Amino acid sequence: MIKKKKIFITGGSGFLGRHLISELKKKHFVFAPNSKTLNLYNYSKLKKITKKFDEIYHLAAWTQAGDFCLKYPGDQWLKNQIINTNILKWWKEMNPKAKFIFIGTSCCYDENGNFLEKNYLLDEPHRSLTTYAMTKKMLLQGAISLENQFNMKWLCVVPSTLYGSNYHDDHRQQHFIFDLIRKILEGKYKNKKVVLWGNGLQKREIIHVKDFIYNMLKVNEKKRNDIINIGYGKNYTIKHFAKTICEIIKYDSNKIIYDKSKYVGAKNKKINISKINKLIPGYKQNLLPLKIGLKETIKWYEKKFF
Q1: CATH class of 6-161+206-230
Q2: pLDDT in tens, 112-143
Q3: How far is CA 198 from CA 71, 176, 192, 270, in A?
Q4: Rounded to an integer, what distance in angstroms lies between the CA atom of residue 153 and that of residue 144?
Q5: Average pLDDT, the chain
Q6: For the chain, what are the domain ranges?
Q7: How far is the C-alpha of 58 from the C-alpha of 283, rounded, in Å?
Q8: For the chain, is the Cβ count within 10 Å smaller at the N or the C terminus?
Q9: Does domain 164-204+235-268+288-305 correspond to CATH entry 3.90.25.10?
């Protein structure tokens, strides 16, 4: 019989967090306070949590999609550094025997590089994403430093853009794939102009949130003190994603307007999955096909908002 773990999660109210909690609760005890019940900026609040955990999943981060990084670089640096330092300190002081699993970002890689894990700390990020990327690099370096001095256990997983059902519906800017779905559905049902940012040639990679979680948990069983990319293995242009969505919902893709004056960020994002391919047999073959995943996500989005 598998031993039930005691698991602590930050960022549990987010998109990934809600799916992860749902999965982990099937087998383990999960404690996932939200930002209203636990202020991660205040270490004295964290220190009041004296329970011992087997694993700590750190998902919380102060960021949003789109041009958010351009608008709030100073706030991003200060807020994420406080959050990350507090959780690292709490891990070391209150739960040093726990394994610390945290989320990295593909923003740390050079958009013209090979997106290999060994370059995560070395690559120069896209200039518009530097602040957020550097806070994630510092988080990894913090975990490495604690390992080196105190022999602590950690795992850093780097996802491509996540998609699937049960995405957030608040005021935050949406990740590109949800932004495309929303705008094209509005074009169909509300007769709004569909205006997408850039020329549509920038490339992106997505992986279904359930595939990401399944493989993250598999990796967690096999690895410690390592960084692992978890991606789909293929990227597509924004125009390709938009056309696919149009085909699924039966909307004329020729109506789409591409605004070349808008911010697009890195021109390419496709993380290298050679490491996880070797670690998990049949990894790529078992991923949900893109069109099936998009159909499911669009159906959920359509039902909830339209």
Answers
A1: alpha beta
A2: 999 999 999 999 999 888 999 999 999 999 99
A3: 18, 12, 18, 18
A4: 9
A5: 95
A6: 6-161+206-230, 164-204+235-268+288-305
A7: 24
A8: N
A9: yes
Is the pTM for the entire model greater than 0.90? yes
- Out of 29-43, 56-70, 150-164, 272-286, pick the least confident: 56-70
> Which residue's entry shows tokens 């242009």?
237
Total Cβ atoms within 10 A of residue 70: 13
